[in-house]
Predict the 3D structure of the following.
Amino acid sequence: MSDRGASSAGGFEFRDQMSSMARERLGTTGIGEMISLVVENGAMSFGAGEPSSDMFPVDLMRDAMERAFCDPDIWGYHHDDFGSIELREWIASRMKQDGIAPDWVGPENILLTNGGGEAISLVTEALIDPGSLILVESPTYTESLLTFRKQGAVCVPVQSDDEGIIPSELERIVSARRARFLYTIPNFQNPSGRTTPAERRMRILDILRENDVALVEDDPYHYLSYDGPPPPSYLKMARDDRRVIHTNSFSKIIAPGLRAGWVVIPPALVKTLSSLRVSAGLGRPLAIQKGILFYMQGIDFERTIAGLCGEYRRRRGVMLDLIAKHLTPMGFCTNRPAGGFFIWGSAPGEADVKEFAHYAVREERIGIIPGSAFYPDGEHGGDGSFRLSYSKVGTDAMEEGMIRLARAWRSYVGAERSKA
Ligand SMILES: Cc1ncc(COP(=O)(O)O)c(C=O)c1O
């Protein structure tokens, strides 16, 4: 009997069996590390970038799911690999009505996925070979970086400012290196809360056109816009150019536990994405897709979105006021996002915010995510920056969290001084 990979009291170790991808390209993320610390310390958290559970439409969704479960179609294999045609029609029509999709987008261009995360994963598999260069807005959503790297991509950061990707930076990088696509979250970005204005989007699209680069637009916060509608989507702006792949999700507007999202696929990629979908498993749960369809058919969409925005806008306001009261006097700077869940900030001086975040969760039981977690160049970027999320913490608890954070900072700085 072969003992390759065998041994030790812990049982078979899969030493020789593990793929080089699993050995070399997977790792824990800075966010995962902080979430574990929050749980271990029983801490409050401004870290979780998730919707608030008290806003999940539990009763309406239960009724919609009950109806879905009475539908005989849901019980067998579903033979449409792209998912429920009715839900795809609903999405296509909604996106057009809301100015997100251009005329060419129909249900045949929409693939339903296991959350926006799977949409990004499928696009990654379609477009990346080991060693391929891709451009990513920096900072960016850590899980996407992990997905790109798993496929072997080299993620090249493109610097951004308060209005998202800096066009001159994109131009400089794109002309020097041949990249497959640019990944961007144009609205209320995770982690920075920033939104790229329309003129800048147009300039970015022009640069990509001139250099033959595709664009992946990840837009799960689109509808959570608190100060007026967001700028036109890249998908819509590109019109018949069809170089934009758009990923989206029901996680933020219904609930993330449903694991439901979608990708808008340009015609040239429909066949490839369809094959990838099949290779990833036989469909996604039709029961969930039908439940979402019945839920959407039963609500007034605009009113529901206005209700969500009203509550998150309120939470954003309370957190900004608390920041002004507790953090600004100590020299912290933060931005004012126009939507989504996140405020981006920087600590005063030369502080190592990663170290401070660990200190704060241990000593004061309050979690924040250090900015370094979101930079493609990891430890070397983002020192001094951090992300605060206002979505999941009720406004009553927020002040306590902010007091703890301010206290943690004072004692951390004191401890650092006494070391010096
Ligand atoms: C920018 C961004 N993209 C994609 C996702 C994935 O969301 P889901 O897979 O729940 O749809 C998230 C979730 O936080 C996100 O912030």
Remarks:
- The pocket of pyridoxal-5'-phosphate is lined by residues 49, 115-117, 141, 185, 190, 218, 220, 249, 251, 256, 261 (CB under 6 Å).
